[in-house]
Every structure is written in C-alpha cells, then in structure tokens.
Specification:
Number of strands: 11
Oligomer: single chain
Strand order of the largest sheet: 3-4-1-5
Distance between the termini: 54 Å
Order of helices and strands: EHEHHHHHHHHEEEEEEHHHEHHEEH
Shape: globular
Structural class: alpha/beta
C-alpha cells in the first residue's frame, strides 16, 4: 500500500495538472501495449499501434519492465509543460543520476545485457533512447492526443467541482476508488508498501489516460511529489467497445455533419467550463430531453466529453469544440 502523508501546508498546495503529461502518457502506454487486459478499451489501439511501429523499441523495453519500477528520469517534471519541453529536460539528465536509477532498476534480478550496456555509458546511449521515444510516441500516442486531452479536461472539470464544493479535502475524497482519503493520509493500492511524506511541498495530481488500476508516483522521495492516477473519464469510454481507442478523426467524420443549427451552437457555448444536463438545459433555455439529445450528438461529433458521476453526468467541451467556438464555425 502507498500512503501519502499531508500537513496543513500540503493540503493548501494540492493542485491539478493543467494538461496531460506527454511523457507519462507515452511511458504508461508502453505498459498497456504489452498488457493483454482491458481489451475493450485498448484492444484496437494495440493492434493499430503495433502496425504503425516501424522503429526499434529495444532500449525502451529494457528500461520499462512489464511491471514494477521504471527510472524516474524517464518522466521529468517538465513534461507537464509539453512534449518538447519534457524531452529537453530528459536530454539534460546527468549521467550519474541515470546510473543511480538504472542500478535501482537492476536490483532483484540479473540485468539484461542491453540494460547493463546502457548503464555503463548512459550518455552515449541517450540519443538512441530519445529516438525510440519519439518514434514510439508518434505511433502510439500522438494520433490520439486530442482524445486524451478531452478525457483529461473532463477529469479536471469533475475534480474542480469537488474542490469548489468542499476544498482540498473534498477533492482528495472524490478521487477514483483505488485512492482513499483518510485525513491526513491518502492511501492507494500499490504493489509495494511505501510511505511518502510531502513535508510542505504539496502534491501535483496528474490524471492519465493510459494509467490503469493503480496510481503511480516517483521512486525518489526528493523529487517534486506527483501522483499519476487513472482518469475516471476513460472508464466511461470503455463502454464504447474500443471506440475511444480510435483516432478521433475517424469518429468525428461520421457524425460532424449532424452538427447544424443555431440551437446546438447555443448549447455548445452553454457548456462553458462544464455543465450537468440539467444545468445545460437551464443555461441554453431548452428542455432536459433536448439538452441531453444535443449533448449526445455533439459527443459523437467529438465536440463534447461526458463524464458520469453517480446518477449525474458532467459535460465538458473538447479541444475541437473549443476551437470550433473560437472560430465561429458552427452553422447557424
């Protein structure tokens, strides 16, 4: 079990990541690629990704085992600011830190020849790792980035409501079921027994599309604390029978033609930073049934994401929907 210990200062410094972290998504997706579970959600994605991969992933395979620890340097904190920023930070990791973390990776089992070779001269092998990361990211993550962004935005909207309703205490209590808030400790199902003491540094909550079943945190307690956890939005998308794993372009081309008329333009704008169906009906001045129908069509068109919370649902605008609103491209 993982136990994260908060002080009053830490509670005041809890924050949600502003966007998906491209490096975390890339590394965690490499786990999903080799995992045979969650076929409904990731089965089609695995097949398509494998067909796209025409570059080597041997170094990645050596550094990212099927389960358990992988080096912290693969997910620098700068990754929260974008793919290129994260890669620049990774490129600047000191060789001695790499060797130290690779030593941790090699504990408990004889290191593979490739891992031993990387550890012996990490600086020389780093360009190869960077090339593999870029090639894998282009095949496995980049085609789905708009969908990933939409899912994380929906998750942020849900957690933001909890924060507004009850502060940091309610935010932590609203996290997925594998995370249990028992003030002042956040407990999590975890493969090893571990205590993390924040010591006034706060905690960055990073929802992730490719994170599954358990949350993930960094091994080094001196690094800025971050908790990567499964975005609840992806659990709802599993009901689509793999539809969420297809590039959003394929989905919206089939249904975008349905999005016409002034009323849907009003409904889309009424969603704002997030709205339940009843709030949407009230803001747009339409009936509850009409609001639900319009939201359904816009969800199929890739303009809206819907996250279910108990008996209620929360609609949020996707990046595509926001771009459409800014461009004034909705037909009237």
């Amino acid at each position: 079990m993982l136990r994260i210990h908060f002080t009053g200062v830490d509670l005041a410094r809890v924050r949600m990541a502003g966007r998906p972290d491209a490096l975390w998504e890339t590394i965690l997706s490499f786990h999903r690629l080799r995992d045979r579970r969650d076929v409904r959600l990731f089965g089609e994605w695995r097949t398509t990704t494998r067909s796209r991969l025409n570059s080597e992933t041997r170094v990645l395979g050596a550094l990212i085992p099927s389960r358990g620890y992988f080096p912290d340097f693969l997910t620098p904190v700068e990754g929260q600011y974008g793919w290129d920023t994260g890669l620049d930070a990774l490129r600047g990791i000191r060789p001695e830190r790499m060797r130290r973390e690779l030593h941790v990776l090699g504990q408990g089992a004889p290191p593979s020849p490739r891992l031993r070779d990387f550890a012996d001269d990490a600086a020389r092998h780093l360009p190869r790792l960077m090339d593999e990361l870029r090639g894998y990211h282009r095949a496995a993550v980049e085609p789905y980035w708009t969908h990933i962004q939409a899912q994380i935005e929906a998750e942020r909207a849900a957690r933001g409501r909890a924060l507004l309703d009850g502060g940091a205490d309610e935010l932590l209590a609203s996290l997925p079921p594998m995370l249990r808030w028992r003030a002042p400790v956040l407990e999590c199902d975890y493969p090893v027994d571990r205590d993390v003491r924040l010591r006034g540094r706060g905690l960055l909550l990073q929802p992730s599309f490719f994170c599954r079943r358990t949350a993930v945190t960094l091994h080094d307690p001196e690094l800025p604390p971050v908790l990567v956890y499964p975005a609840a939005a992806q659990l709802a998308s599993a009901q689509t029978g793999g539809e969420a794993a297809r590039p959003v372009e394929e989905q919206r081309q089939r249904t975008l033609g349905k999005l016409v008329g002034h009323t849907r333009s009003v409904v889309l704008r009424a969603i704002g930073d997030g709205a339940t169906t009843s709030e949407l009906a009230r803001r747009a001045g339409v009936s509850l049934a009409s609001a639900s129908q319009h939201a359904c069509v816009m969800r199929e068109a890739g303009l809206v994401t819907t996250l279910r919370r108990g008996s209620a649902v929360l609609h949020t605008v996707t990046p595509l929907g926001a771009a459409l609103l800014k461009g004034g491209a909705v037909a009237s």
